[in-house]
């Protein structure tokens, strides 16, 4: 099988996983171009894939780096004046808008979005994507122990955030 | 409010919806993959950390590029009128608190666009709806609605809490909370419509006049207006009442039906509530809390009801505020509770005249910071303090803000001197 066919097979099998990861990771639905980038990058560097990890884990690693690159470029874009930005305003909807998440899911989604990057990454991979600590460790290039500890702290932070949100909603008893 | 376990939270996260790409787009990407000639592409070491070390160079190039684009864009934008409609500059979740400032894209963007009108127009509407017992954008009214009806139309609430002797059900997505009594009658409706954030206390005063009373709790200032003889509006502003009215930003408002929050089975009248407060005070307790001054340690209370929202220390006494419970616990260095304050909404319907009639003349009266404080010595050790929002005026028009049960001996610092 040639490289293009291998990547095509992987695309058919894993594109939705990569898409979901990128939507949650970037908070934007408009990530099809990033998905394409991920598979083209994989195609270019297939030789470096040593088969030690699952293709899905490897693709997620590429997806994460692609998203980080994208965020960096976006940061550069943010230096540009508002008027210019208005012309390139994306009309993409955020996941909660597309998916009509019910309120509790929306609160959870928002809580995950508001976490610091390390917490958010581990929550998306371990929590939302349901990967094992080992797979998550491979993608993030961390030790399994670090994944577990960070996940524990991230869950605690999410719970605190959700409790705070709930209190804010009811407000004061006045 | 019980917190979720780790397993529950993990399940909730796994339960977040799956997302699938559009089939056409997939087909397009497959075609791109098929037609990509790998030999003509520069090789990349994907997913290798080393790859990012090269980013420094890229970043430098990007910076130059960005600067060029920026200069070009500035030139272009200075020379042409933008045709973009007024747009929000970011749709990043979580950025709602910041005021985005005048919207970009208007032809004459140099002059700040007046942002208030749309929100200021809300105030007459808020008043008109409140006279009918409603909050804006919500079809239900206090007094007339049974919560069952809301649940039938809107489905189950996202969560339910107890406070003020009422049950509060929250519809988070709609930004609406209903408070209802034991008969399921809705007596309190709260909204945090995002448009409210553009209003401040100054605008509210201009549109609605001076409030009937101004109180403060947990760092928020509350303006209460009696819109009819039955219904009240409470505007809750972020900030202390000492701040300038223009700096007090509206965070939410309630339409409240005080009469509906009287549990006639438990308290036939305000006099019954006052007698109950006096009886509780003799035992070192206050309305809406089972804990006692002198006897209880704050450590134990915290274990049972969780962490406070606000902690402040003053003269060696620590004050812990529970916003949703309307309670403040103060404790000394030995963690002994010395002061408990209740801001229960039921108290706030009781006038000074009723207090005088039921509890008689206080042992001491003081006025401070716009408040009148009545002190009753209920036992040799405990004092019941009743704080009214306002000074002077007719006793029928002055209402309770909060009540304290106070243990003066516990506030003496035995360690000092």
TrEMBL record, chain A:
Superkingdom of origin organism: Bacteria
Domain annotation RNA polymerase sigma-70 region: ranges: 11-75
Keywords, comma-separated and alphabetical: DNA-binding, Sigma factor, Transcription, Transcription regulation
Protein name: RNA polymerase sigma factor
Domain RNA polymerase sigma factor 70 region 4 type as annotated: residue spans: 106-157
Any one biological process term the GO annotation gives: response to stress
Membership in a protein family: Belongs to the sigma-70 factor family. ECF subfamily.
Organism: Brevibacillus parabrevis
This protein's record includes keyword Heme: no
Entries under InterPro entries matching the protein: RNA_pol_sigma-70-like, RNA_pol_sigma-70_dom, RNA_pol_sigma70_ECF_CS, RNA_pol_sigma70_r2, RNA_pol_sigma70_r4_t2, RNA_pol_sigma_r2, RNA_pol_sigma_r3/r4-like, WH-like_DNA-bd_sf
PROSITE patterns registered for this protein in UniProt: SIGMA70_ECF
Pfam families: Sigma70_r2, Sigma70_r4_2
Higher taxonomy: Bacteria, Bacillati, Bacillota, Bacilli, Bacillales
Cited SUPFAM superfamilies: Sigma2 domain of RNA polymerase sigma factors, Sigma3 and sigma4 domains of RNA polymerase sigma factors
One GO molecular-function entry: DNA binding
């Amino acid at each position: 099988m040639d490289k293009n066919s291998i990547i095509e097979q992987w695309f058919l099998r894993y594109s939705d996983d990569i898409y979901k990861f990128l939507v949650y990771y970037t908070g934007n639905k408009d990530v099809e171009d990033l998905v394409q980038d991920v598979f083209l990058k994989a195609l270019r560097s297939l030789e470096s894939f040593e088969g030690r990890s699952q293709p899905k884990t490897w693709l997620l690693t590429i997806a994460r780096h692609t998203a980080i690159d994208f965020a960096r470029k976006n940061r550069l874009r943010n230096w540009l004046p508002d008027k210019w930005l208005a012309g390139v305003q994306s009309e993409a909807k955020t996941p909660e808008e597309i998916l009509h998440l019910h309120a509790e899911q929306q609160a959870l989604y928002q809580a995950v979005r508001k976490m610091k990057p390390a917490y958010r990454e581990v929550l998306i991979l371990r929590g939302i994507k349901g990967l094992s600590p080992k797979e998550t460790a491979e993608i993030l290039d961390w030790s399994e122990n670090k994944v577990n500890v960070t996940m524990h702290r991230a869950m605690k932070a999410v719970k605190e955030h959700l409790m705070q949100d709930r209190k804010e909603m009811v407000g004061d008893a006045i | 409010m019980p917190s979720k376990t780790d397993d529950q939270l993990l399940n909730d996260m796994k339960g977040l919806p799956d997302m699938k790409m559009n089939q056409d787009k997939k087909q397009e990407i497959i075609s791109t993959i098929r037609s990509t000639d790998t030999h003509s592409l520069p090789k990349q070491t994907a997913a290798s950390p080393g790859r990012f070390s090269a980013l420094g160079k890229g970043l430098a190039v990007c910076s130059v590029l960005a600067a060029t684009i920026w200069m070009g864009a500035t030139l272009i934008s200075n020379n042409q009128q933008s045709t973009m409609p007024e747009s929000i500059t970011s749709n990043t979740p979580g950025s709602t608190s910041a005021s985005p400032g005048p919207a970009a894209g208007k032809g004459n963007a140099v002059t700040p666009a007046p942002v208030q009108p749309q929100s200021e127009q809300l105030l007459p509407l808020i008043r008109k709806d409140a006279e009918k017992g409603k909050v804006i954008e919500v079809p239900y009214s206090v007094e007339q609605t049974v919560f069952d009806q809301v649940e039938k139309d809107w489905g189950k609430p996202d969560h339910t809490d107890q406070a003020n002797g009422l049950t509060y059900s929250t519809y988070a997505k709609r930004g609406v909370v209903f408070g209802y009594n034991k008969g399921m009658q809705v007596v309190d409706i709260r909204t945090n419509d995002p448009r409210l954030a553009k209003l401040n206390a100054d605008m509210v005063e201009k549109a609605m006049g001076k409030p009937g009373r101004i109180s403060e709790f947990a760092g928020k200032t509350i303006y209460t207006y009696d819109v009819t003889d039955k219904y009240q509006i409470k505007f809750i502003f972020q900030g202390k009442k000492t701040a300038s009215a223009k700096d007090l930003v509206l965070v939410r408002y309630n339409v409240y039906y005080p009469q509906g929050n009287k549990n006639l089975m438990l308290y036939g009248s305000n006099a019954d509530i006052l007698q109950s407060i006096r009886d509780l005070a003799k035992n070192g307790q206050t309305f809406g809390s089972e804990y006692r001054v002198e006897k209880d340690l704050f450590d134990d209370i915290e274990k049972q009801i969780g962490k406070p929202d606000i902690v402040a220390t003053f003269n060696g006494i620590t004050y812990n505020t529970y916003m949703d419970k309307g309670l403040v616990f103060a404790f000394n260095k030995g963690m002994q509770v010395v002061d408990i304050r209740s801001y229960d909404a039921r108290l706030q319907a009781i006038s000074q005249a009723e207090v005088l009639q039921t509890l008689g003349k206080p042992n001491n009266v003081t006025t401070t910071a716009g408040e009148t404080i009545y002190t009753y010595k209920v036992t040799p050790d405990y004092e019941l303090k009743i704080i009214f929002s306002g000074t002077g005026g007719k006793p029928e028009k002055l209402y309770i803000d909060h009540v304290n049960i106070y243990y003066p001996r516990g506030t003496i610092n035995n360690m000092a001197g």
